Backbone:
């Protein structure tokens, strides 16, 4: 993309997994590495944006010129996102947020006294849907990580969460999606869909930033 594609824009990106505590030493999480979200943050910064990266636990170095906000749980990620809302023109949700968390966190390490145990889970807040329904709504882009009916489910998320764009990610395919260095996606909007073939997350992020910037401009 041309340098300056996103100059003057403030961009907030969520990345990585969240961790939902069970007790002081255990948690529920997923296989997100943060690579996709960090690559997007790097590409947006290279395109001239001021970038805040809200990241769950990931072992990646923050990209240059990107402000990193580290969080653990979905609730912390939501709090961090809401804090940014006043100064955010574009919000991209690449994080794999845990949909549920344990209903209560045990104060002490749970002992293995029983043959079976049950953990009761309650629903986490939906961060990207909360952002998209805010009065000071930024242009809001979500991902959809799906293992079947990828486009259909992505369209469902576009409508239900009131998003401007959804990046549909088939996470059942080997070599792309969670934790791999490459990805392939379909960018879904209300009136269109566009396939981007498998490539490095780094290159894909640059293509996505270009596509998003084209959509962002008419609104400004
Ligand atoms: O991190 P990597 O290893 O590089 O892997 C990249 C990725 C596969 C994690 C990424 O490309 C991706 O698809 N991210 C979204 C993962 C996900 O959890 O998708 P979902 O279909 O469950 O959620 C839909 C959208 O809602 C996502 O934008 C998600 O960030 C958001 N969400 C979901 C639940 C929730 N409580 N709050 C949210 O904001």
Residues:
């Amino acid at each position: 993309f041309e340098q300056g594609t996103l100059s003057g824009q403030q961009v907030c990106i969520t990345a990585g997994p969240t961790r939902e505590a069970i007790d002081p030493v255990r948690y529920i999480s997923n296989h997100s590495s943060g690579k996709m979200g960090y690559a997007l943050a790097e590409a947006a910064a290279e395109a001239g944006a001021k970038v805040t990266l809200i990241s769950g636990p990931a072992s990646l170095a923050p990209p240059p010129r990107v402000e990193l906000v580290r969080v653990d749980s979905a609730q912390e990620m939501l709090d961090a996102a809401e804090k940014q809302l006043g100064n955010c023109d574009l919000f991209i949700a690449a994080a794999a947020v845990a949909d549920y968390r344990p209903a209560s966190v045990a104060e002490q390490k749970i002992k293995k006294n029983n043959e079976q145990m049950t953990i009761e889970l309650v629903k986490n807040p939906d961060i990207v849907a909360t952002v998209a329904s805010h009065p000071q709504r930024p242009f809001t882009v979500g991902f959809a990580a799906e293992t079947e009916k990828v486009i259909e489910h992505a369209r469902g998320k576009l409508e239900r969460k009131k998003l401007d764009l959804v990046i549909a990610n088939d996470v059942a395919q080997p070599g792309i999606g969670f934790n791999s260095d490459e990805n392939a996606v379909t960018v879904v909007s209300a009136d269109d869909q566009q396939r981007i073939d498998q490539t490095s997350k780094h290159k894909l992020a640059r293509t996505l930033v270009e596509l998003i910037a084209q959509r962002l401009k008419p609104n400004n």
